[in-house]
Design a protein that fits this description.
Elements: E1 2-6, H1 9-14, H2 16-25, H3 35-42, E2 48-55, E3 64-75, E4 78-86, E5 98-99, H4 104-116, E6 123-129, H5 134-141, E7 146-150, E8 154-160, H6 165-172, H7 175-189, E9 194-198, H8 204-219, H9 224-239, E10 243-250, E11 253-263, E12 268-276, H10 285-299, E13 304-306, H11 313-317, E14 322-333, H12 336-348
Parallel strand pairs: 4-6, 12-13
Antiparallel strand pairs: 1-2, 2-3, 3-4, 3-5, 6-14, 7-14, 8-13, 8-14, 9-10, 10-11, 11-12
Length: 356
């Protein structure tokens, strides 16, 4: 396997057609390793990004792409912690790669060996990969001076969707869940001046701001730069035709909102972020807007509804989801120089500020 390193946007653009072809052929590929998502991420990430591209021979087409990112911690002009991450950090729920199924194991092992032989890192976090072929990549990374520590699996709930909404209600939900979803939806839709809107280019600024605010109110506020990155990525998905964003309103008052991505190539729906107005708690608006997402996913002929990271109970108990794991590992170089750099980084780390 020959491994090429792509470091510039122009190079990423040149391989777009091949990336799209591999993505379509790869049954394990997910939205966060699509060319469109990563191309948008590369434009805003503060990290140094690059793509490893594998091909069997100099004159052959590429058979695998692995997006990565690099950071470095310097103290007193000395490079200390040199870290490697999977591409998409921290805005992608999943990480991974795209590969031709006929060449995947060989290509991923070769990519692992290439990374292992690159001395420009001493810590590599392989995080949140919902792909069984991760083992092939890690096998290539094994070596006498590398220590691989598996991370705890993270739950990724999903629903296999039938072709009809009524069939979903009848076969995926319990009697109680079906009754409650219908009741909460009816009560919400009976509110004065209720309306459900689908985001367009004209309403995108307003809707994205509202859903991000509600999401942050629920899970914790982001730094302004991070919130801006989410906003940029959602606008990028809208421009690419992949964004699904529903808002529920009572007049001009938002009730709930949610954003997700339609992967039409693999007929999958990715539920990304959502939030609700706590003034409407008694109506369970968070569940109502998820119901809208599921119904729209079925209408779009998706066969797989991905709740992404997080095993919150309502996903399984209320919406009938099953679980699969996203796996990861932390890999550290154990040679003398890398050990010394890590110790020096800890020694030179700024002291914590203690308030009186």
């Amino acid at each position: 396997m020959r491994i090429d390193v792509i470091t510039e946007a122009a190079g990423m653009d040149r391989i777009a057609a091949r990336w799209h072809a591999l993505y379509a052929a790869d049954p394990h590929a997910h939205y966060f390793v699509s060319w469109s998502w990563l191309r948008n991420w590369f434009a805003i990430t503060p990290y140094t990004w690059f793509v490893l591209a594998a091909r069997p021979a100099d004159d052959a087409d590429y058979v695998a792409f692995l997006p990565l990112a690099r950071t470095a911690v310097r103290r007193c002009g000395v490079g200390l912690q040199q870290s490697l991450y999977m591409g998409g950090k921290p805005i992608s729920d999943y990480a991974g790669f795209v590969a031709d199924p006929a060449h995947a194991d060989a290509a991923l092992a070769a990519l692992g060996r290439h990374i292992a032989g690159d001395s420009a890192w001493n810590w590599f976090h392989v995080g949140h990969v919902p792909d069984p072929r991760l083992d092939a990549l890690l096998a290539g990374l094994s070596g006498a001076n590398l220590r691989i520590t598996p991370d705890a699996d993270v739950s990724c709930p999903f629903v296999e969707l039938p072709a009809d909404w009524d069939e979903y209600l009848a076969t995926r939900l319990s009697h109680k869940g079906r009754f409650n979803l219908r009741r909460y939806t009816r009560m919400t839709e009976e509110l004065p001046e209720f309306r459900a809107t689908v985001t367009s280019a004209e309403t995108a600024d307003r809707d994205i701001d509202v859903v991000l605010t509600m999401w942050q109110d629920r899970w914790g506020a982001l730094a302004s730069a991070d919130a801006g990155n989410y906003r940029t990525m959602l606008h990028g998905a809208l421009a690419d035709g992949d964004l699904w964003l529903r808002m529920l309103w009572a007049g001009e008052t938002p009730i709930a909102g949610a954003a997700g991505f339609l992967d039409r190539v693999h007929r999958r729906f990715c539920y990304y972020i959502g939030g609700y107005n706590p003034e409407f708690n008694k109506l369970s608006p968070g569940k109502v807007v998820v119901g809208y997402a599921l119904r729209d996913a079925i209408a779009a002929e998706c066969t797989f509804f991905d709740f992404l990271l997080g095993g919150e109970g309502y996903k399984m108990d209320f919406f009938g989801a099953s679980e699969r794991p996203a796996r990861g590992a932390t890999i550290m170089r154990m040679d003398v120089a890398s050990r010394m750099r890590r110790r020096l980084a800890r020694w030179l780390a700024p002291a914590p500020v203690v308030s009186s």
